Amino acid sequence: MGKYKVPILLLCVFFNLHHNARTYSPLEREIEAKLKLLNKPAVKSIRSQDGDIIDCVNIYEQPAFDHPALKNHSIQRVPNFLLESQISRTGDGFNVSSDVYQTWQKSGSCPEETVPIRRIRKEDLLRAVSLARFGQKPPEVFVNSINPTNLNFSNLNANDGVVDLKNRSDALLVAYAFQFIGAQANINVWNPKVEKPEDFTTAQIWLKAANGPDNFESIEAGWTVNPKLYGDHNTRFFVYWTKDTYKSTGCFDLTCKGFVQTNKDIALGATLGPVSVPSHQQYEINVGIFRDNSGNWWLKVKNNIPVGYWPKELVSNLQSSASLVQWGGQVFSYEVKKTPHTGTQMGSGEEAYNKFGVACYMGGVRIKDNSQALKYPSFVSTHAIEPYCYSAFNDAPYGKDPVFYFGGAGRRPPHCP
Ligand SMILES: *[C@@H]1O[C@H](CO)[C@@H](O)[C@H](O)[C@H]1NC(C)=O
Ligand SMILES: *[C@@H]1O[C@H](CO)[C@@H](O)[C@H](O)[C@H]1NC(C)=O
Ligand SMILES: *[C@@H]1O[C@H](CO)[C@@H](O)[C@H](O)[C@H]1NC(C)=O
Ligand SMILES: *[C@@H]1O[C@H](CO)[C@@H](O)[C@H](O)[C@H]1NC(C)=O
């Protein structure tokens, strides 16, 4: 037996050298290096039914700690403030369930001291516009950039909701005129159609602050259908951050260094289910983003479950407060604001005025300001940049908790040709 050991080992070495020499182009080497940087060593890996692989990574080895600004950051394991538990389901709980889970959770769980991270594969990188922009939203560029009369980044206000963006279409509820230190909503879960491979659609919350004269910072969470990023048409739970209007910083989920995850049961970018059924059972997920006393912004779901946080080191003005909160949907497509319009849907794919059971909604909309109370915002406005394609309607009957409806089908002639 012993005499075979050496030849086999040599054969392996020879094969590897040969293999490397033959197949590794510069691009492939770059891809391998990027994968190695993004995918941290797993203590355990879970193969999910939806095709994802979830790696349970030691909490101290997650991507965030590669960030130069987080060199001296000591991880915060729990938020240093009391979590609120006030908000319940939307619509008096009538045919509404908050029993939303993540598909991978059916196939296993991560051990203590680890966090679940969706593994990034070579094919995911190959779908990206470029390796450098993998995991990033395209930059926001304003249609009226020569004379942005309705835009002042030093003083973000309601007008930011009506700003016309290139290749993006929004339907939003906007809260302004305050310094916000938190926001939340129950987001109705759907699986809208995404028509073009580079399109994506979101239902989400944004908290924004100015960062210099021509940039804003934003931290975001919600659900998205984004085939370019995730490789399928599933509805996925996501987070995002940027400190320069999506130009170069930030990304979705843990596809770059930044967000610090603390929860071992919830994976960012993972498939959500079940989704709502028209005129029948509605599913919603409570999502909240709250600043703690040290300036970190915590993400929590299902009222009281902390997922992790955006460390204060990532942002500048957002460290103290957000000056704008937006709830609603956004479609990114090269075929918005033109004819023929993209058929990518927003929300449930139905228009806002169809209301409960048909249109997508945000219920239990709340903000927190320096009074520390969780409350419905004093000033809100609604904005839809292409109302015949994607509409916005805030249903606020006297004495009832308002529900914000939004969405649409995209192309639907004659209204949205
Ligand atoms: C980390 O701490 C060292 C020593 O106190 C300091 O020199 C360095 O600037 C710090 N780095 C960051 C990114 O804060
Ligand atoms: C933008 O807002 C800041 C602060 O409120 C103000 O000083 C500045 O003059 C404004 N700029 C424009 C172009 O309105
Ligand atoms: C509530 O759900 C049940 C079962 O899915 C359905 O039969 C009923 O029509 C729904 N009611 C409303 C008002 O949506
Ligand atoms: C918007 O889409 C067009 C193609 O229709 C593209 O040329 C342009 O670069 C895009 N702009 C931005 C800011 O993404």
TrEMBL record:
Gene3D superfamilies: Outer-capsid protein sigma 3, large lobe. PANTHER family: ASLB (DUF239)-RELATED, PROTEIN, PUTATIVE (DUF239)-RELATED-RELATED. The keyword Lipid biosynthesis does not apply. Keywords: Signal. This is Carboxyl-terminal peptidase. Pfam families: Neprosin, Neprosin_AP. Residues 155-417 form the Neprosin PEP catalytic domain. The lineage of its organism: Eukaryota, Viridiplantae, Streptophyta, Embryophyta, Tracheophyta.
